[in-house]
Amino acid sequence: MGAVRSPFKRKAIALRLQGRSYNDILRMLKLTSKGTLSFWLKGLTLSPEAKKETTRKFGDRFETKLAKIQPSTFKANKK
Questions:
Q1: In degrees rounded to 5, what are phi and psi of residue 44?
Q2: How far apart are alpha carbons 68 and 64 in whole angstroms?
Q3: Residue 67, class by beta-carbon neighbours within 10 Å (0-12 exposed, 13-18 middle, 19+ buried)?
Q4: Is residue 47 classed as helix, strand or coil in its secondary structure?
Q5: What is the pTM of this model?
Q6: d(Cα 39, Cα 47) in Å, to the nearest integer?
Q7: On the CB side of 46, how many CA atoms lie within 13 Å of its CA?
Q8: Across 42-67, average pLDDT
Q9: Interval 18-53: pLDDT, tens
């Protein structure tokens, strides 16, 4: 099934790099699993233009979520 999904994965990556949201990509490619999309796009670094587009669409919600996943924000559990 990987060969069948490959064109979708490449297109999903291209759309995300353009600043498209996961929901936009799911709709455009007629995919049903946000989990698969997340797996495909994991580790993808957005360009400054794509970040700007995403921030324009979603405002502070994107910046807040981005700050939450930055490695510097992870704290070790102290017991």
A1: -75, 130
A2: 6
A3: exposed
A4: coil
A5: 0.61
A6: 19
A7: 19
A8: 74
A9: 888 888 999 999 998 999 999 999 988 888 887 777
Domain ranges of the chain: 2-73
Cβ atoms of 49 and 74 closer than 8 Å: no
Residue in 69, 31, 1 with CA at minimum distance from that of residue 13: 31
**What tokens does 24 get?**
């936009």
Lowest mean pLDDT among 15-19, 22-26, 66-70: 66-70
In this structure, what token pair is assigned to residue 55? 């921030």
Using CA atoms, how far apart are residues 17 and 9, in angstroms rounded to an integer? 12
With a CB cutoff of 8 Å and minimum separation 6, the contacts of 35 are none
CA distance 11 to 14: 5
Write down the number of H helices and E strands in the chain.
Answer: 5, 0
The pair of structure tokens assigned to 56 is 């324009």
